[in-house]
């Protein structure tokens, strides 16, 4: 198949490009090379240096494409409120412009990079009162070192449970809001075009080629960079936050599976899938594993600090992706994090 891949020079995009090429697909790579993602790096050979916000100007590049795999986005939680226009411009407007250009070019299949952040807090349950909605944690509780999510009935701490794709969307950051918007644009497009789309809700992606420590980098890269500087990883809250860390090679495989699946989907169908390892791990455990793998005698520092927009636990259910896409992760954190500890990173 001929696949136009946006964000093709990025951490995830480059892994997808390699996987698609190995599978025999023709890749049309597009990337605007945003400085916050690539610094002053020149685009790799063959990359079309184009902005998805201007997709109407390069609609001819889309003609003859079977599927668009849309990875281009401004990522991270957002450092300040001043980041809001960048997220809205690149993620919201960029996706809308790309979808309009695809319709003009007659391309009616899309795989969209989404994120676990669309859920906000994950799924929680009380032993006495069952599933409970997760309200935003009170600032006073966080300042007092009470980080768990409380039951709305009894006030006791809630236990986390697996989040499936039917969960309510509750974005808690500018990035999360933009990812929800991207999904909503895609869902509207499949009805209006008509077309078919798959959204892949990535959980915490890590692996070789990940950007180094920047305000927009993932926590695994931030821990890695601290260890390289000879500093102990600094863990926020009490380190008990539970997440799912998924290797970039598995994310690339999930995209290949989604591209194959969406090509055969009937029009007017939009489906979201969690892309995860299926193995929960705490943030503190991630820091410990990376420190141990680098043989650094640097125990993580639990700071008690917090960010008001952060969520406590998000742990994904891999079931739908397994049953409908045939995707199951092959790299667990016990292997992947050890390898990541000494893998090359992107400057």
Protein described:
By secondary structure, this protein is of the alpha/beta class. Helix 1 links the parallel strand 1 and strand 2. Helix 1 packs across helix 7, helix 6 packs parallel to helix 8 and helix 8 crosses helix 10. The protein starts with a strand and ends in a 7-residue tail after the last helix. The model has no long low-confidence stretch (mean pLDDT 93).
Q: Helices and strands in order, then pairings?
A:
Elements: E1 2-6, H1 11-22, E2 26-30, H2 35-38, E3 67-70, H3 84-105, E4 109-115, E5 123-126, E6 130-132, H4 139-143, E7 159-161, H5 174-192, E8 196-202, E9 204-206, H6 219-228, E10 234-235, E11 242-247, H7 248-263, E12 269-275, E13 280-282, H8 283-293, E14 301-302, H9 319-325, H10 333-340
Helix pairs in contact: 1-7, 3-5, 6-8, 8-10
Strand order of the largest sheet: 2-1-3-4-8-12
As a whole number of angstroms, the C-alpha radius of gyration is: 20 Å
The helix/strand order is EHEHEHEEEHEHEEHEEHEEHEHH
Q: Which ranges are low-confidence, i.e. pLDDT below 50, for 5 or more consecutive residues?
A: none
Q: Report, as a whole number of angstroms, the end-to-end distance.
A: 32 Å
What amount of the residues lies in strands?
15-25%
Secondary structure class reads alpha/beta
Give the helix proportion (percent range).
25-40%
Q: What is the global morphology?
A: globular
Tell me the total number of β-strands: 14
Q: Report the total helices.
A: 10
In round numbers, the mean pLDDT is: 93
Largest sheet: 6 strands, parallel
């Amino acid at each position: 198949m001929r696949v136009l891949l946006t964000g093709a020079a990025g951490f995830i995009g480059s892994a997808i490009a390699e996987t698609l090429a190995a599978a025999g697909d023709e890749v049309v790579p597009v990337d605007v090379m945003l400085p916050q993602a690539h610094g002053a790096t020149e685009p790799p050979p063959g990359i079309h240096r184009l902005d998805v916000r201007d997709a109407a100007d390069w609609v001819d590049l889309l003609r003859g494409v079977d599927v668009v795999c849309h990875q281009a986005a401004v990522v991270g939680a957002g450092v300040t409120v001043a980041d809001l226009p960048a997220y809205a411009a690149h993620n919201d407007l960029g996706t809308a412009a790309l979808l309009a250009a695809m319709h003009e070019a007659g391309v009616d299949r899309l795989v969209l990079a989404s994120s676990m952040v669309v859920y906000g807090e994950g799924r929680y349950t009380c032993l006495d009162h069952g599933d409970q909605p997760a309200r935003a944690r009170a600032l006073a509780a966080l300042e007092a070192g009470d980080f768990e999510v409380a039951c709305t009935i009894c006030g006791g701490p809630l236990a986390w449970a697996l989040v499936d794709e039917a969960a309510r969307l509750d974005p808690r950051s500018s990035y999360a809001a933009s990812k929800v918007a991207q999904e909503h644009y895609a869902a509207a497009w499949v009805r209006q075009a008509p077309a078919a789309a798959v959204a892949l809700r990535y959980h915490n992606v890590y692996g070789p080629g990940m950007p180094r420590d920047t305000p927009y980098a993932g926590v695994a890269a931030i821990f890695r960079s601290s260890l390289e500087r000879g500093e102990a990883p600094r863990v926020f809250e009490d380190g008990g936050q539970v997440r799912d860390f998924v290797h970039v090679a598995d994310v690339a495989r999930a995209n290949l599976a989604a591209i194959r699946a969406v090509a055969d989907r009937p029009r007017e169908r939009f489906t979201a899938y969690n892309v995860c390892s299926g193995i929960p791990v705490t943030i503190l455990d991630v820091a410990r594993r990376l420190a141990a793998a680098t043989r650094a005698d640097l125990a993580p520092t639990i700071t008690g600090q917090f960010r008001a927009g952060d969520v406590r636990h998000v742990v994904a259910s891999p079931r739908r992706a397994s049953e409908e896409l045939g995707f199951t992760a092959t790299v667990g954190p016990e292997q992947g994090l050890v390898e990541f500890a000494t893998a090359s990173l992107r400057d």
